[in-house]
Write a structure and sequence with these properties.
106 residues, mainly alpha
Length: 106
């Protein structure tokens, strides 16, 4: 019985860490989107360029992916978590790439 508990504990820790990571990434996307919105509102030259709009939409798209995965993990049972773990890791990795990409900040 203790072996089962030992095996499930790292899995749950990993799941909890992934949930926390996704929550943190979601907050970063929210902050970045708010910054971009404020920047676009204060621009005196008029409307945003096509590139700025594409970058802004890219931020919103990845924020949604992070939010959806966060909700999936919150609802997932142990076996479901194991099945979607790789997808969750991919979402996290892609989100980090997008957040570190200088394009949305230009």
């Amino acid at each position: 019985m203790s072996k089962t508990a030992e095996k499930s504990s790292p899995t749950m820790d990993s799941r909890d860490n992934m949930i926390a990571e996704l929550n943190s990434l979601y907050q970063k996307f929210e902050h970045r989107i708010e910054e971009r919105s404020a920047h676009n509102r204060t621009q005196s030259c008029g409307s945003a360029t096509k590139t700025e709009i594409e970058n802004f939409n890219r931020l919103k798209l990845h924020r949604t992916k992070v939010k959806n995965m966060h909700h999936q993990l919150l609802e997932a049972k142990d076996q479901e978590w194991l099945a979607i773990r790789e997808e969750a890791q991919t979402v996290v990795e892609n989100a980090k790439i997008i957040l570190n990409d200088p394009k949305p900040s230009n």
